[in-house]
Amino acid sequence: MSEAWALPREPTSPKDLQKAFPFHGYIERAEHRAIKTIQIRRFVDFASTSCSTLAVPELSAAELNFYHLNEFLILPACQEHQCSAVELVECKPQSPLVFISHWWGSKIKHFPDCLEHYSRRKEFKQEVLFWIFAFAERHPRKHLQEGPDAGFIGALALADCFLLMLGKGDQVSTFFSRTWCLFEVERAIREKKVMDFALQDPPDVLVETFFDQVGQMEKKTPRSEARSISMREHPFPIQAIEPGLQLDIRTSQASNKEDYERILQAVAGFEPSHLPEPGEARTSQERFCKFNRRLRGELALAMWYQVIQQGLADPKRLARVILADEERTTLNKNFSHSNFGDYHLAQLAAALPSNLLHLQLSLWSSQIGTPGIRALSKSLSQLKHLETLTLDCQMCSRIGQTGVDALGLCLPTTITVLRLNFHGAFAVRNILGLAKGIANLRNLRVLSIDIGGIENMDHRQVRTIAESFPPRLMNLHLGLRGCPYFTSSGVQSMVLSLPPEMSMLSLNFSVCDRINNDAVRWLAFKMPRMLKVLQIDLSDCVQVDDTSVLLLMQKLPSALKGVTIKLAGTRVSLPIQRAGRKLETIRRLLDSQERKNGQRPTESTEKNRHNNHDRHGRVQVCLSNLFVPFPFCSTSCRVCSRHP
């Protein structure tokens, strides 16, 4: 064991501490003074083995907390250079990945073990750097002259996650009575940080977050679905968070009276130097109440999933707490892979605050059916300011026709972004009611609707949806994966209804057996010319071949910045399939075709566009010396507006 880790025989002096933790160098900004777990463990182990010589003799290692660590180790070790604890073990800036909020009275013995457990549960792909006030701030503190948040707000902005270290045993409830902890949580909510909870001894972690990183993870990472199920089903002692439902910033406590007063000044919306004036007391009380309701609402929302999974108390209490947060404008919750059913959805629907602007719910559950969707629809009709609605009901096989119709009739006309996923809702027969509701959204800019896997989806129903596209629609995603009766006629109806100024288009026609080259040619000739991003999935469309795909690539709008054309499982040759993955490879393929033929394919296409009509009234397009029939009506050519 090195000298820095050895147990001193004599009382430890500041010089002994400075020798054990030699100064490495200054790191200018506090937000770059994050610390590694191994570095934290070095401080904790030294304090634990030397506690009898650092502090009063009767203090045991199991009783050491951050107050002891700061007073008897960090302050003396940093005294000579007026530095932070991080600068005793590191000289290079370290930006935080996780910001930790904790009560200084919590024990330090199991603190590093809990952080290691948290890192494993989250499966971070990079070395985890934690920002902890006790280690990152220089002493004595001077940041109060700039306001109570000056010391940590920069670090919070840099961090990806916010970890509430609740402690252990009877210390857990203390967290929600500490002024600094509540203030940090409120700032994290304001910054929309991913929030997690941790308990010590034994270490336990809840990664069901306020802003639902897990839900995003399910869409992006391999094996993510199984991983997220494991995370969600892990039983976390949710009673540890329950004291937060009664938190009150006014009755909270802080070790430093000046800190307490300045934090309350900040919560009330006043500058640190502000002197209260007559009549401001009522305003301050109202802001304190809003602060309390906001934090309680977030905690209730974080608890909801585990309350349902573990069969605990009725969620009506949680619903009342969320409803009381009248200032809430965003609600984002993922209930996928849970016991969440119609009754729970009705309770959540009743808790939606009237001022809600953005609502995102993932309801991937076989227990969700028509009654739950109808209850949600009724509450949606009361939201007069809703701008964004995201509703993921994929694989909710119990949702029937009346549920989808009710949703369509109750969509608030203020919506500008609408994302609906009914993939695999096999009981749905048609989407006429939904199309009528979309047609009323005159300000809609973004529309994403996935109705894949529904057998009754054919070209007539897609035409109904297409006719509902508002003229100012900018982004469109249409998912029809695995619809057996969807044909090229449906593609024709859809492309003829696309707004001309659309900037992003995403179409999923994979595993649609009746899609053929005609559909691809319609896309080629009627694509909106202002498109910036294009994604087309034609995987397993077995009737699609090289001729139409090359034509589509030639006719891509010149304004495009990104293209993805998925062609696996088609009759398209492998070089063209690979080229369709991105815009650069498509351009290289077309360049090689030009060099091979000695002319630009697009010039040949334009030349033959007006000169080649067959006797059936169909345009013939010259593509690499191969004429390909293109179907239009027998009386008029819609490409060049000429009669054949």
The CATH topology of the largest domain corresponds to Leucine-rich repeat, LRR (right-handed beta-alpha superhelix)
If strands are numbered along the chain, what order do they take across the biggest sheet? 6-7-8-9-10-11-12-13-14
Tell me the CATH architecture of the largest domain.
Answer: Alpha-Beta Horseshoe
Q: Any idea how many domains?
A: 3
Portion in beta strands: 5-15%
Terminal CA distance reads: 92 Å
Q: Can you give the helix content as a percent range?
A: 25-40%
Q: How many helix segments?
A: 25
DSSP strand count: 16
Low-confidence stretches: 1-9, 142-149, 209-227, 601-644
What is the name of the CATH class of the largest domain? Answer: Alpha Beta
Global outline: globular
Identify the CATH homologous superfamily of the largest domain: Ribonuclease Inhibitor
